[in-house]
Amino acid sequence: MDPTFLILVVLVVVALGFDFLNGLHDAANSIATIVSTRVLSAKWAVLWAAFFNFIAFIFFGTSVAKMVGAGIIDPHIISDRLIFAALMGAISWNLITWWAGIPSSSSHALIGGLVGASVARVGSFGAVQWAGLGKTAAGIVVSPLMGFVLALVLVLIVSWTFLKSSPFFADRVFRKLQFVSAAAYSLGHGGNDAQKTMGIIAALLFAHGATHAPGTIPLWVVLSCQTAMALGTLFGGWRIVHTMGSKITRLTPMQGFCAETGGAITLFLATHIGVPVSTTHTITGAIVGVGASRRVSAVRWGVAKSIVTAWIVTLPAAGLVAAAFYYLGFWMK
């Protein structure tokens, strides 16, 4: 077998491994609220989320994949060694934060890995495409803020709508509606996050001359990435579920519905315009929003602060780890 082709196959498998880990790491984003409100058990919640993670490709295009594959760094410097370093940087940081139970961003770990590996390759930031990186960095602020505002507004709307309803009736209605909101959020999660790995594989194929443009996404890439993410979600991320579902604030089914719906709307908009935002940032902002709608003290701001700190650290930390792996991968082209 041609060694170059073998390396390509291995790197595609590693990329799918990152996608699986992304699903594992971010499973909590899709299921934390519906589990914490006891609408579904964790076992059935992951099955529900995994299904909608997988079918997300039916509803969304590949604009996010094109941004990751060709809009963050110059695609003409892509090499096996660079992709290997970027993936290992992201995977290493994901494992560290997963073990610690910190809901950091797999998306920004991957972006940080790409930037760190590209800097190690060219010796400067010259290969970074600042317009694309700027959009992604803006998502660190915009996605949780938008999730916060939308969830807060939704809580106010439904509170007024059900003002004269009995608590029992409202609880029963929102327990049913949470199936819809959890499905919508899982669609948004699968639609935005799986495309990031599609972009990495597309860049690899372009570097090997298998495609004519870095934004070309073959169907087999789409299906394999959606499958890897869904399988990762099936295995769940129980440590992070605890943080997202109960440590930030306590949720009722109505609040869970508002958080998931606010998060889903944010992800749909971001995926539509091709911005690779963090699903973790988005749902955390939404959960904080519904908690703050009760009273400011309902949110455990100490936990929220530690999560925000992890967000800020993720890009540079993953970038440094990726740069180290680039130098360790001297045996690759």
From TrEMBL:
<feature type="transmembrane region" description="Helical">
    <location>
        <begin position="217"/>
        <end position="241"/>
    </location>
</feature>
<feature type="transmembrane region" description="Helical">
    <location>
        <begin position="82"/>
        <end position="102"/>
    </location>
</feature>
<keyword id="KW-0812">Transmembrane</keyword>
<keyword id="KW-1133">Transmembrane helix</keyword>
<feature type="transmembrane region" description="Helical">
    <location>
        <begin position="140"/>
        <end position="163"/>
    </location>
</feature>
<dbReference type="Pfam" id="PF01384">
    <property type="entry name" value="PHO4"/>
</dbReference>
<protein>
    <submittedName>
        <fullName>PiT family inorganic phosphate transporter</fullName>
    </submittedName>
</protein>
<feature type="transmembrane region" description="Helical">
    <location>
        <begin position="41"/>
        <end position="61"/>
    </location>
</feature>
<feature type="transmembrane region" description="Helical">
    <location>
        <begin position="303"/>
        <end position="328"/>
    </location>
</feature>
<dbReference type="InterPro" id="IPR001204">
    <property type="entry name" value="Phos_transporter"/>
</dbReference>
<keyword id="KW-0472">Membrane</keyword>
<keyword id="KW-0813">Transport</keyword>
<feature type="transmembrane region" description="Helical">
    <location>
        <begin position="108"/>
        <end position="128"/>
    </location>
</feature>
